[in-house]
Structures are given as structure tokens and as C-alpha cells.
Amino acid sequence: MKKSQIIEMFTRFEKANPEPQGELEHVNLYTLLVAVVLSAQATDKGVNKATKELFKKVQTPQQMVDLGEEELIQHIKTIGLFRGKAKNVIRLSKMLVELHGGEVPNNQKALEALPGVGRKTANVVRNIGFRVPTIAVDTHIFRVSNRTGLAPAKTVDKVADKLIKVVPDEFKLHAHHWLILHGRYTCVARKPKCAECIIRDLCSFKAKEQ
Q: Given 29, 60, 74, 186, which is the most exposed site by the fewest CB atoms within 10 A?
């Protein structure tokens, strides 16, 4: 995709949705971090359902530690891989208390050092929680980046590296949300809704829906 096409693509996204929002429900930075960790290989809707009651009780790392792993499991057992996620959430909560005074750090390396937190999770937290212009690549963004020709690459990390280079600075803050929402609702995996796509003429996908 040419630079002029990329600018036009994000200009259209911005016009259609000037302030895109993440769909994971949270009450503060800490609950955002927990929600993102829980969302790995799960839907936002499923995570929101599981955390609705949890976040009424737990809003700080210390409260999570006090709740304990077994009680946490009872709240999140409807989410895939819940046992491993519960273990990670308790461990990362302890680390936040012991190393960061109970606060979520705005630091990529510090976040990635937490159990269950990788590059994508850290980027999501920094983007939504601290409004840092980072771009996290999930399955939706990976698909849209390859299918449209925006940032084609064979791995998630390579797509992320390309996006940081090709997305103009003025669009970086919201690029993550625009791309994920486009992939979730329009450029879907099996039958992309090309007929209603606002960037159809800019996209290099050959098998467009008529």
C-alpha cells in the first residue's frame, strides 16, 4: 500500500470514528491490565461477562492478592485457560505491589516482565491506559494488515514493526482501535464484508466480495 493510500485509509477511519474505544470493560489501569491478560485467546464479550462482578470486589493489586487464586478462578472459570490466567494474575499483582508500589508502570519492559504480559498486552495497556501511540497486533490486526496490504508480514512481531513504520504519526494513537474494529466487524476472517467496507478501493485483497 502506498503512503498516500495509507493516509487516505486512516483519514477515512478517523472521519467514521474520531474517538475509537476499546471494548474491554475496566474501572482503572489495574483492572485494564487484568482484563487484557484475561482476553488472550478469549473474546472481549466473554471477559467482560466474567469480570463484571470481579471488578466490583477487586480494583487494586493488593485486593487481588487478598482475594486469592481459588476465589479468582470462581470468577473467571468461563474464560479459556482460566487456571493459568488466574495464576498469572495473582503473580503479576504481587509483583505490582512489591516492585511498583501497587501501580501499573508506563514502561514497556517493566510491563513485559509481569507474568502473562507480552508485547501485545503491554502495548494495549500503554495505548488505552496512558494514551501512548503504540500499536498492538492481535489476530484481527494481523489479518487486516496482511489482507489489505497495509503491513504484510508472516509473524505478529514483524507486522507490529511494519505498522510502527508505515502508520503516520498523527494516526498512531488510535490506529490500534481502528484496525481491530475493522477486523472484528468488517474485514472478518471467513466472509469479509467488502461491499460495506469504507477502504475497499484502497485494499489489495484480490478475492473481494461483490
A: 74
Decide if 123 contacts 163 (C-beta within 8 A): no
Out of 56, 85, 138, 206, which one is annotated catalytic?
138
Question: What does the alpha-carbon distance between residue 102 and residue 192 come to, in Å, rounded to a whole number?
Answer: 43
What's the chain's average pLDDT?
94
CA distance 100 to 102: 5
Among residues 3, 120, 157, 193, the one annotated as catalytic is 120
Q: Quick count: other Cβ atoms within 10 Å of Cβ 140? A: 18
Cβ atoms of 121 and 129 closer than 8 Å? no
pLDDT band at residue 207 under the 50/70/90 scheme: confident
Q: What is the pLDDT of residue 41?
A: 86
Segment 54-82, tens digit of pLDDT: 999 999 999 999 999 999 999 999 998 99
Q: Which domains does the chain have, with CATH numbers?
A: 3-20+135-202 (1.10.1670.10), 29-130 (1.10.340.30)
Residue 138 designated active-site = yes
Grid cell locating 143? 489479518
**Mean of the pLDDT values across residues 143-167?**
95
Nearest Cα to Cα of residue 145 among 121, 161, 134, 132: 161
